[in-house]
Amino acid sequence: MSFDEIWGQDPAIQTLTRALESGRVHHAYRFEGPSGVGKEMAARRLARALVCEQGGLGCGACSACRRAMTLSEAEPQVPLHPDVVLAGRGLYRSVTGQAEASGLGVEQVRRVILERVGFAPHEGRALVFIVRDADELTSQAANSLLKTLEEPPARTHFVLLSSRPNRLLDTIRSRAQPLRFSPLPEPVLARILLAHGHKPELAAFAQGSAELALSLADPDALREREEFVAAVQAAIDAKDLSVAIKFAESQKGDRDTLKAQLAFLAQKLATDAREQVKDRLALADVQAQRHAAVLAAMGDLEHNVQSALVLEALIQTLRRAR
Q1: Which of 42, 140, 196, 309 is the most buried (most CB within 10 A)?
Q2: In angstroms, rounded to a whole number, what is the distance separating the alpha carbons of residues 244 and 29?
């Protein structure tokens, strides 16, 4: 029952189930795939199975299982079970004394992971470290983890979560077994939306991400994305570039927010192109070109190009596609 709540990731879940049933759970995994497709959910359920008082795939009912799946109400919001340790950029500001704006830093790794890994599990079964967005580890933090990842103590397991595994140091990648999580199919996203009481039609705009699908179901988030699309269209239709420049400079959201807005814009363009391809082929081709430009802009964001520059260049490209 440990992984019943995770939909659309059968190959990955089957691999984890076989490992648990055979008692051969690897000491370090890399859960790779886009954001919002179940990586952290699967990691926490693997941890639950490993610390379960009954063993196997995890009963889900014992005290250990319940505490592994329950986050503390106070900051930092981490699992209540002492043998399930969650790490991530900005998660332990009270411990590190800093916001870790440049990445998951060495101070958190040393104090949250390395100081803990030297001790046996509190409750005897296993000790599990889940590292959220492991590609954000700074070089110093990653290097401090190498020896522990290669030869962890008995009954100690690591799960590194990443939507950008190519950014992990090769030495980190080589010490963890990869497990791929794929974008979720639209029927699965529609099922997730229905389960949360939302309209399944939003699945078409979610880019394979349950996180984005549920975000779109929030009226305020959906309105913000639609306003972003309308502002982009106004900048495309404007007589000169001043509107585009002003729009680009007005976007103050973080990189992840902008990427989500661009993903929504890309899906709108793709939907428009599909609808127009039968009757308005030339316009469908324009929308297809614009879709490709938005995807390229999202790639620029991944390479840390300044957000305002990405938007300004994107609007210029979209204006040329007419």
Answers
A1: 42
A2: 44
Asked if 38 and 112 sit in the same domain, the reply is yes
Q: How many CB atoms lie within 10 A of CB 261?
A: 23
- Residue 122 sits in a domain whose CATH number is 3.40.50.300
What does the pLDDT look like over 12-50, one tens digit per residue?
A: 999 999 999 999 999 999 999 999 999 999 999 999 999
The verdict on 148 and 261 lying in the same domain is no
pLDDT in tens, 180-231: 999 999 999 999 999 999 989 888 878 899 988 898 888 888 888 888 889 8
Total residues belonging to the chain: 322
Q: 129: which strand partners?
A: 85, 158
Q: Is 49 within a domain?
A: yes
Segments forming the whole domain that contains residue 174? 10-180
The radius of gyration computed from the CA coordinates of the chain, to the nearest angstrom, equals 22
Taking only the tens place, the pLDDT of each residue in 234-266 is 888 888 778 777 877 777 666 778 888 888 888
Residues 52 and 105 in one domain: yes
305 pairs with which residues across the strands?
none
Q: How far apart are CA 185 and CA 212, in angstroms?
A: 13
| Token representation of residue 203 | 């699945």
Assess whether 172 and 244 both reside in one domain: no
